[in-house]
Design a protein that fits this description.
By secondary structure, this protein is α/β, with parallel strands linked by helices. The chain folds into five domains: about 110 residues, 3-Layer(aba) Sandwich (Trna Endonuclease, Chain: A, domain 1), CATH 3.40.1350; about 200 residues, 3-Layer(aba) Sandwich (Rossmann fold), CATH 3.40.50; about 70 residues; about 160 residues, no CATH class; about 90 residues, Arc Repressor Mutant, subunit A, CATH 1.10.10. The protein contains 29 helices and 22 strands. The strands form six sheets. Strands 1-2-3-4-5 form a five-stranded mixed β-sheet, sandwiched between helices. The protein has a five-stranded parallel β-sheet with strand order 9-10-11-8-12, with helices on both faces. The protein has a five-stranded parallel β-sheet with strand order 15-16-17-18-19. Helix 22 crosses helix 24.
Length: about 725
């Protein structure tokens, strides 16, 4: 640091401490680097040096002592300080003490009055917002995986870029959904800025700890009190107001309002009022660099966001990436655990990667290899996220947050997907339905920052689910709960959106196979919720059961994402007026089943209308036939039984609905050409090479395909005798 910069920094500290200008001037005929006139009879004298010449330093100390003595003779008191950018010299310290002069390095001078080193130490030991271990809530000290934050024009910023912008007095808003690393960015920015200045440390405040504060100085005092540094509050407040410290304010969506309204304009005013302290911080920070973080969907518009935070249109707005890249996720998992791979089905959101590596290694292996591993992990993630939300307000338990999310996921099905929106009234009603009381006090903030939800547009207060994967899973959990409890509010709703494939798999895992679900299905039909019945049939057919009796169930209307008639005998079912996105047919038998007046976008396993079984009526319309490979078609191929067995295994494991296949289900429909010896050899090889995982299920062994091999298997099926794949050669 150059001499001029050192002087400016020392003078800035002095002005903040003594609330008066610090200038170079003559005292008793001697030029002094820094003089503060606290009162007419009280001065502060500071000599500043960047040299390490001991003789020169001793001369400066002597000069200070002489000026102090001269002022004393005039009846004026003087505090005297010698500040150097060099390291401490024991002999010089002794000489200064003897002359009644305090000797300081810049760091010790700043620490004496502004608690600079103490603040960095204490703040670094505390959690930064949500950057905590998901299981324990303690500060996350794991290695940081660098990512880029992007502005509206696509320009990428690293933590170093953000730190440089703040040092250049820029104002930044960092937006991101839950679990995308906003708080971790604040933590890393704090570290970077703390390394660049020994005097003026960044001030990093978790806004969740400052409910109800309308003045910035109160927020700073509250913050320092929590760190045990309240003795320095007066000086630091003054120093911040002079623009000496970059501000890092984390969680504008967590500084809760004390009321809730279903009216958008009134709620915007509630948000604005709750952020008075933040606006005061922006206005009172002396033009210093500043970053404020929060969830993207908290405000109803970008205009409201800027106005509520007190920022101008030239503010840099950055967004966290929603997910790690594939390489970043793999690097994160490898760095933080003994695992070398990321499950193919796992979303790559930073929080979810953090939850994954926090699992016990044995549990992680089980999740990756289990037929229900994806569903089990999804539930763990939902529960962890709900617990994470309640750290903001312990008065609302995690189960309440989860039930509100499930309620909203279910309510959203009453609208078509292209017009899906959750109004403030819908949020209010969901809260009331779960808790039995209106959202007031601390609970109001929860509704404004619910995970998985985002604004439908820049100028709208309405919300929608922004994560299709999570929405599908939550809907599956919601239907499971409604059927398990025979919830009549679900029976009375008119759903117009079907469960997606993941939602059906979530429900299928716990779908009871006795008469109770069918009884509730009939109640749903009686009250007009035909979609619930369609969901039930499509989900029930995902099981590996050889025979399913629907007991004369009749469905007239609804949608199905997929419908799978594979290796099953279906009895006593009528389906009419249903739109099916994809129907898969292979080795199915029908008894008293009638399916007609339906539209199917794609039918897999049949080449034409003439090949359909008699269960399908004359008004059954198909947009696209995809003959694909069926067990019956494989039997007609000009292949050996060994090759046909391999084809059947690949087809059943990789190209039929579901997440896995029971061992006994692999044989169904292939009896005419099945070679058990070859099948056992191929399965052993698949398991050995990681193409399949073999796990113990409730009814025998289950084989779980690893989807990264799907492309390879598709090539094998397409090329057949021309294939040079080792698996083809294994059976040829």
């Amino acid at each position: 640091m150059g001499w001029q910069s050192v002087e400016e920094e020392v003078r800035a500290i002095a002005e903040a401490v003594w609330s008066s200008p610090c200038r170079s001037e003559q005292v008793a005929g001697t030029q002094c680097d820094g003089v503060v006139h606290v009162r007419k009879d009280y001065l502060v004298l500071i000599e500043i040096s960047v040299r390490d010449d001991l003789a020169k330093l001793r001369d400066d100390v002597t000069k200070l002592a002489q000026m102090k003595a001269a002022l004393m003779s005039q009846g004026k008191y003087a505090e005297t300080y010698f500040v150097t950018s060099q390291n401490n010299h024991p002999s010089l310290t002794a000489a200064a003490d003897a002359a009644g002069v305090e000797f300081h390095t810049i760091e010790s001078f700043a620490s004496k009055f502004l608690a600079s080193s103490q603040y960095v130490y204490e703040r670094s030991r505390r959690p930064f917002g949500s950057a905590v271990e998901p299981q324990t809530g303690v500060s996350d000290e794991s290695p940081f995986t660098p990512i880029s934050y992007v502005d509206p024009k696509g320009k990428k910023y690293s933590v170093e870029d953000i730190s440089a912008a703040l040092a250049g007095k820029k104002r930044i808003i960092l937006l991101g959904e839950f679990g995308t690393g906003k708080s971790r960015c604040v933590k890393e920015t704090f570290r970077a800025l703390s390394d660049t200045s020994d005097s003026f440390t960044p001030i990093a405040i978790d806004l969740r700890d400052n409910w109800g504060y309308r003045r910035f100085d109160h927020m700073v005092r509250n913050h320092l009190d929590a760190l045990g540094l309240s003795d320095f509050a007066d000086n630091l407040v003054k120093s911040v107001r002079r623009g000496n410290h970059p501000l890092l304010l984390d969680g504008f969506d967590e500084i809760g309002s004390q009321s809730w309204s279903g009216d958008a304009a009134m709620l915007a005013e509630v948000r604005r009022k709750s952020l008075e302290g933040v606006r005061d911080a922006v206005q009172s920070s002396g033009g210093a660099g500043l970053v404020i973080t929060g969830r993207d969907h908290y405000f109803s518009s970008d205009t409201e966001m800027l106005e509520s935070l007190g920022l101008e249109a030239d503010t840099i707005v950055l967004r966290c990436p929603e997910e790690f890249s594939e390489a970043e996720a793999a690097n994160y998992v490898a760095t933080h655990s003994n695992s070398t791979s990321v499950p193919e089905w796992m979303p790559r959101k930073p929080l979810i990667c953090q939850l994954l590596v926090s699992l016990d290694p044995a549990e992680l292996v089980l999740l990756q290899e289990s037929a229900d591993g994806e569903v089990d992990f999804f539930e763990k993630v939902v529960d962890a996220i709900c617990h994470r939300e309640t750290r903001i307000n312990a008065a609302i338990d995690a189960s309440t947050v989860k039930r509100i999310l499930l309620r909203l996921a279910q309510v959203s099905r009453t609208q078509p997907d292209y017009a899906e929106r959750l109004t403030l009234q819908a949020l209010n009603e969901a809260f009331f339905a779960v808790t039995g009381y209106a959202p007031i006090d601390e609970s109001a903030i929860l509704l404004q920052r619910l995970p998985y939800l985002g604004r439908i547009g820049a100028e709208s207060s309405d919300r929608t689910f922004i994560d299709p994967y999570a929405k599908g899973g939550l809907r599956g959990l919601a239907v499971e709960h409604s059927f398990a409890t025979s919830a009549m509010e679900a029976a009375r709703e008119i759903w117009v959106q079907p469960l997606d494939d993941f939602g059906m798999r979530v429900w299928s895992r716990r779908l009871v196979k006795d008469a109770s679900p069918l009884k509730f299905v009939r109640q749903c039909i009686a009250h007009g919720n035909m979609q619930a019945a369609a969901d039930y049939v499509a989900t029930r057919l995902l099981s590996d059961d050889q025979e399913i009796d629907f007991e004369k169930l009749s469905i007239d209307g609804g949608e199905m994402t997929s419908l799978s008639f594979v290796d099953v005998s279906v009895k006593n079912l009528t389906i009419t007026n249903v739109h099916v996105s994809e129907l898969t047919f292979d080795n199915a038998r029908f008894d008293n089943v009638f399916i007609d007046d339906c539209l199917v976008d794609r039918l897999v396993g049949v080449s034409s209308r003439e090949d359909l079984p008699t269960a399908f009526g004359t008004k059954f319309f198909v947009e696209e036939y995809d003959e694909a490979l069926s067990s019956a078609r494989i039997s007609t191929l000009n292949l050996t039984n060994s090759q046909k067995t391999l084809m059947a295994l690949v087809k059943k494991l990789f190209f039929q609905p579901g997440s896995g296949r029971r061992e006994e289900a692999l044989v169904r429909g292939t009896e005419s050409y099945w070679d058990k010896t070859v099948a056992d050899k191929v399965l052993r090889q698949f398991v050995t090479e990681g193409v399949l995982h073999k796990v113990k299920g409730d009814q025998g062994w289950v084989y779980i395909p690893q989807r990264r091999y799907t492309k390879r298997m598709a090539s094998l099926v397409a090329e057949q005798k021309l294939s040079q794949d080792p698996y083809w050669e294994l059976v040829s």
